[in-house]
Amino acid sequence: MTRPIWSGAITFGLVNVPIKLYSTVKRKTVRFNQLRKSDNCRIQLKKVCATDGIEVANQEIVKGYEISPDRYVVITDEDLAAISPATSHSIAIEDFVQLAQIDPLYYMQSYYLIPDKGAGKAYALLLAAMKKSQKVAIAKFVLRNKEYLSAIRPTGSVLSLSTMYFADEIIELKEFDSMPKDEVEPDERELKIALQLIESLSKDFEPGNYQDEYRRKIFAMIDTKAEGQTVVVEKPSETQKGKVIDLMAALEASLSAIKKNQSETKKPKQRKRTARAR
Fold first, then answer.
1. Which of 169, 130, 132, 114 is nearest to 147 (CA)?
2. Does residue 189 lie within any of the structural domains?
3. pLDDT tops 80 at residue 267
């Protein structure tokens, strides 16, 4: 049974909508343990002093911020408590904006906002109003002693919340040395073929069509090794790193291959004829 990770209320104006916050994902990261090669003994990491190599107990460890090489300002839990955002159980909506105005670069993690007991009417009203206006709510709230900027939007029959990065956390393009200085105008013929290539690959987005093949292969390999079988190592495909290609030829070849594949997919399957016994 999925449990809420936070409970509180959405507030906008004088309206208060009690909700519960649920994660939208079940992470399926493959985790490995570190073992000693000789006997598969589990490895434990110890906290040691970088100066004398002596192990340090947890109660002797404090937080420090490096202000210059080997110079630290020690920060206590009391210091942090004094400036921590006030504990609040409200998601305070500050603005409503167009979804298209939010660059996906700002999104971090998403959650479902499910109405709490007695909040059905107010929740339904907010959901309907946001669908009608086609606007996204920008709000702030505190989760685990950290203040988050967030975007609230309708997702099917419920509201969802996506935590966001603040503007000063996004790296600006001018900070990259390798950015092209002059804008290159594409060749008209190449652009036309590229647009045809995009159109030939265009379809409705269906999330279920995309699977984590690497994770599937990892578990298949684990099963094979657990059964004592030998794992056959696939030879990696040779890459053409740094090779200058004919862009037009590559585009035309890509489009031709896609059309051929689509044509073969649409061909009706021929039934096998069985010879009549004479």
1. 169
2. no
3. no
Geometric angle at alpha carbon 37, from 35 and 39, rounded to 5°: 85
Amino acid code (one letter) for 210:
Y
Nearest to 251 by CA among 203, 199, 196: 196
Is pLDDT of 32 > 80?
yes
Task: Read off the pTM.
Answer: 0.73
CA–CA distances in Å: residue 41 to residues 38, 44, 74, 170, 211: 8, 10, 37, 42, 34
- The domain total for the chain is 1
Query: Is 188 inside any structural domain?
Result: no
CA–CA separation, 144 and 140 (whole Å): 13
Mean pLDDT computed over every residue of the chain: 85
Q: What is the CATH number of the domain that holds 153?
A: 2.40.290.10
Q: Is the CB of residue 139 less than 8 Å from the CB of residue 91?
A: yes
Which residue's entry shows tokens 């839990």?
Answer: 77
Q: pLDDT value at position 278? A: 40
155 in a structural domain: yes
108-164 tens-digit pLDDT: 999 999 999 889 899 999 999 999 999 999 999 988 878 899 999 999 999 999 999
Q: Which of 12-16, 62-66, 124-128 has the lowest mean pLDDT?
A: 12-16
Non-local (6+) Cβ contacts of 190 within 8 A are 247, 248, 251
Q: Residue 16: which H helix or E strand, with range?
A: strand 15-23
Whether 140 is in a domain gets the answer yes
Burial of 33 (0-12, 13-18, 19+ CB in 10 A): exposed
Backbone angles phi, psi at 160, to 5 degrees: -125, 155
